[in-house]
Design a protein that fits this description.
Blueprint lengths: L1 H13 L2 H32 L3 H12 L3 H9 L5 H20 L2 E2 L6 E2 L15 E2 L6 E2 L36
Antiparallel strand pairs: 1-2, 3-4
C-alpha cells in the first residue's frame, strides 16, 4: 500500500500546477540559452571569418541545438581578424625599421643621418668632408664619388657608425 501511495503522490505532483510552472521555466531557460548560443556563434564568426557566406554557414551550424556551437568551436579560426591585421601591420613596421637602418652617434648615441659630418648633439666628427665639393665621405673611400677628387688619408681616426638602437634611460627608483 505504501508503494501505491508514493506512486500516487508522484503522479499527483507531475499533474500539479507547480510541476507545469517548473517545466515551463526550465524550457524557457533552455530556449533562451539556445538563442544566446546562436547569437554568440554569429557574432564570433563575424569577428573571425572574412567571407560572409562562411559566417552564415557557421551561424546555421550554430542553430543545431547545443552540438552545433561545440562543432563551431572546434573548427573556428584561432584568432580574430583584427588581431591578424594588427600583427601584419606590426610586421610591416618592423620590416620598414630594419630596412631603414637608423644610424647612431658612437659617442652620445643620438640618431644621425648618413650625410652628417658632425653629430649635432655632441659635435663628434663622424665623417671627413671632400676637399673639393664638401660632400661627406666614408672612411674607406679612395676617391670622392661626387666630384672624382682623390681622398687624402687623414691623420685623425674617425669613429664608425653603430647600427643599434639607443639605450633606454633607467627610471629613478
Amino acid at each position: 500500500m505504501s508503494l501505491a501511495l508514493s506512486l500516487g503522490t508522484i503522479h499527483n505532483f507531475f499533474h500539479s500546477s507547480t510541476w507545469y510552472v517548473i517545466r515551463n521555466l526550465v524550457l524557457f531557460v533552455v530556449f533562451v540559452f539556445w538563442v544566446a548560443t546562436v547569437y554568440w556563434v554569429n557574432k564570433d564568426a563575424r569577428r573571425r571569418i572574412q567571407d560572409p557566406l562562411l559566417v552564415w554557414v557557421s551561424t546555421l551550424l550554430g542553430v543545431v541545438p547545443f552540438i552545433g556551437p561545440l562543432i563551431y568551436m572546434l573548427f573556428r579560426p584561432p584568432e580574430y581578424l583584427e588581431d591578424v591585421r594588427e600583427r601584419e601591420l606590426e610586421i610591416k613596421a618592423m620590416e620598414e625599421r630594419l630596412s631603414r637602418r637608423d644610424l647612431y652617434c658612437p659617442v652620445c648615441r643620438a640618431e644621425v643621418s648618413n650625410e652628417f659630418l658632425v653629430c649635432p648633439v655632441c659635435t663628434t666628427k663622424l665623417k671627413q668632408a671632400c676637399v673639393n665639393c664638401k660632400a661627406p665621405l666614408e672612411a674607406l673611400w679612395q676617391v670622392c664619388p661626387y666630384c672624382e677628387t682623390p681622398v687624402e688619408p687623414s691623420a685623425v681616426d674617425f669613429p664608425t657608425f653603430e647600427v643599434r638602437p639607443p639605450r633606454r634611460r633607467r627610471r629613478a627608483e
